[in-house]
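Chapter summary example.
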Amino acid sequence: MEKREELYRGKAKSVYKTDDADRLILLFRNDTSAFDGKRIEQLDRKGMVNNKFNAFIMQKLEAAGIPTQFDKLLADNEVLVKKLDMIPVECVVRNYAAGSLVKRLGVEEGMKLNPYTFELFLKDDAKGDPFINESHVVAFGWGTAEQLVRMKELSLKVNDVLTKLFDDAGLLLVDFKLEFGVFSDGSIVLGDEFSPDGCRLWDKDTKKKMDKDRFRQGLGDVIEAYEEVAKRLGVPL
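The structure predicted for these 237 residues follows.
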């Protein structure tokens, strides 16, 4: 597989074309950002940890029948993926109250949500990733009603699979965001990444935060927490 020119550079990953029209290479960088890119720092080993963490999770999801963008690891910080036409909508599943939900509704952090909630946000840093609904997605042409149904179905299936996976590792899956895209055959596929950058994970007993909130809130030991989660799951680093 020949790596060609950079196609896109995000806050923490770079995307490269390849000699296969249906495949891309993702480079996981050590860049760590918060507050819609307003704060960015370099954290040693972060690209490697997130790349291998993501590969492990995506393969678990594939085994559970969830189609993902993942193809294969190429290097410590590079992965081969399917090329998707990304839908600019973030799907957020919340099992416990945290983050923006607490700020918006004034509920207590850590409150168990029964049942879990499913939310949509427009992926647009300049606008602060605003909260949207299904009608907005269809009206503005960001996605179709049929695509939204499939995205919600897959998001909730991901929640079922990963809640158990993390629970077995002594962790609470508090919430997470997912992004989806359309593959060349028209199917909806889970894209982007699943790592501690895009979810909240707490130790089941102590409620210690083991995710990017350690960076957002200045708690320190960010990568050490990511590595601890990986170790508990059995991710080979």
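To summarize the output: The chain has six helices and 13 strands.
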